[in-house]
Amino acid sequence: MNDSLQSRIAAAPHRPVLTSLNGDNSWLYSFPIPPSVRSPSSSKVYYHVAADLWLGGPAGIPWLVHLALTATPTVADGKAVDGVVQEIERAAGNPEADAATLDLLALFFHYADHMHEPTLRTFDAKIPVLATSEAAATVSGWKHFENLTMSRDFDPLAGQPWTAYHPGAPLPDWLNVVRLKGHHELNFATAIVYSPSPTVNEVIFYSPHGIRTDQASLQTFLTSPDISTLAILHGLKDNWAFGTQTTLGVVGGLALQRLARPRYWVKSHDAPLVYTGLVMFLGRVKDYWKTIDEGLEKEKAEKGAESFGDRPNFVEVEMNQSFVLV
């Protein structure tokens, strides 16, 4: 990864970097620290956030709800994640890269495949953790982490700007995380807002299961005049359980693409998983993969050629690979 990433960072310095840690839904977000706030005593280039970690082993309760990755992550624990952090810092020319460590653990959702306890226990107890209220309730019961902060939910009726939902320290002022709730707890979007300057606010929408575009939280957030959408992280597959579609798949992703108008659509939470356990059996849980082309054809058939949108700038980031969001 080193030589290739080094050249890509050199070609687009001061841009966020996305690294896939498990080939599915565990990501390392590396945000360039704005020069105006960079400490003169530190040569660290990025603020590194590892989110929704599941780095090997089964998730859930074996006899009830049990999920397994089909590909084993090579980045398997907290020490290995720090190793990836150091690789990225080294590629960016940090002479002190060997001393760099992760800045924040983020828990954007509270199911076991998004906050895998055996994985998270491999991290130092002192590392700051940012979590939704549901995830915070679970992780606090582990009595492992010492610094736990709750993220906030955007209220479309409150009339407050997105900046009012900053969770506070340890998140820096120039980085914000706010959840946009949807019609079901599975169907949400987390808005990660990177503000490298007072007039630039770039949003990454993380929506692993999709969010309906008619949701007031999403629509109101997108009316903010001072933001632009850098990327959406969204899958292509339809997941069905108990006769209900739980992920919105390529059709939902295209709808979000048309509404939010991101520069990139990064595939996320789309890897093959093994489902076992009583609930999975009774619910007939199954994934159905679709392609961008299939989604575009359906969109064209439903909306007509005159309203047929542009092809998304769709990006697949393989496990252990990084992508620079330019």
Automatic annotation (TrEMBL):
Name of the protein in its database record: Uncharacterized protein
Organism lineage: Eukaryota, Fungi, Dikarya, Basidiomycota, Agaricomycotina
